[in-house]
């Protein structure tokens, strides 16, 4: 049995890095921590120290950098002012801009990054170079920032103004940020603006002067990145972490080749590395050669790569890299046979390493849930990854809640990890927040019989502000075939999801109020109908915006809302507060050839008895004929024709006469002839 540990117990026991220091302005504690980390180089292997130096700050600051960017910048400046002799705030400021340049650039192929994101990445890159030069001018101990220059040079190419400043001593004139209006929203996330200063030191940092002539002498793939690699290697007297990054930029996806990685590993640049350290570099191409984008019907290719992975395990590798290979093998075996016992054996070899991403963890949960519930492997995986992966923190909480997979049962411990997950992954608005860390864990338990196992977790997540758990809770409690069926609880969570911006929840709440408002027994329908329309409009406007932004599209739901306007709410358009919103939407969608909207408008403008303020026979005919031309056999259209045309021959002639007077360009739904 694995003892269930509260968050503070686990963090204190492992004692790697503290959280919340920058958010809470604990600058003295930050100084103490980074002094200890800097000086720990004497007590660790050089590779371990380099890895920790870059990994720990990322875990400590990335959440604040991402969600409170400008405030994080302010706190870094305050830290620097509080400790004017410290180079740590300078280094962390470079890290901040490297973080945002990477976020803007993203991990997609270059042609999949939008122009706005490219522009923001290049603006953040300006800050990387300026703040890195300030850091190096302040103290040569800030040499670790050169790894960020290596990455920026490879991903974004070195700016010409910087090249002239460093190698030709030509100071750029009027160096500033160029933020177009279209960039302002995403630029503001990091604090980028035209007012943000870009300041280079008066002189080239002393630490770089010996390298001024090196750039012209180098003849390396990724030459600009290689320059900064050389600086890092010299200053660190080791530099394996930077060399690994450099090898990554020599992969075929960057336009280079495995052969160039091999040549680099065998060159003088790497002669100070041991054989197993060189294998860390070779592992970049070895791991890349084990493809991970197969479907389960590509049996031959999958088997081929299983053999490649098994051959890699025969090489001298670090234990962490071995774990990565076993994780990839688990994926391959899953594609061939999801219940294969070899999958469990693979997971056993990953226990003690933080090598899981969200997809890997999802597959592990699925395997445990379907085929290995008696095994403790999932608990071990959750423990190894709970401090860095939000879904793993949620998973550990769920296991502790029930006493599953060897983890001691303790619901209070579970709650502490649910809350900790929020520090790793903040709740986001819908639709971005749809697939949150809680939902990713819930996915394996989405069948009816498993609802009782996850409902408390979903309730906790809802209270923490996550939108999808609110929506899912409402759905579970609304199912009449569920043991958790409860109308009041369903409404509570559906309402909460709607408040949190979930479009489907807004629609459902709108339907709920609409059904109550149209009951024959309802003596005061207007407040209910108005509330219904408010929900529908929130959903419609949000859906339209998300579709245009390219962040979310659900055309069927958009159409359903207009269908409800045309089928049901239209009948209550005599309330001005409803009609003033409904009718313009029906007109807009009528022009877009929405049949129900066209038919409703035809009936509306023909209804002289009940809606005299809307009556307009010409408009009624126009919309009726437009609908008939689109779908002459449609039931809604036939009903509209019956209302507008009526039976007497005189009215039919009047209808046809009115049709003949409508200019072609004024006929809704008209499609231009293509020549």
From TrEMBL:
Pfam families, sorted: DUF4034 (PF13226)
Domain DUF4034: 20-288
InterPro entries referenced in this protein's UniProt entry, alphabetically: DUF4034 (IPR025115), TPR-like_helical_dom_sf (IPR011990)
Signal peptide: none
Official protein name in the record: DUF4034 domain-containing protein
UniProt organism field: Acinetobacter bereziniae
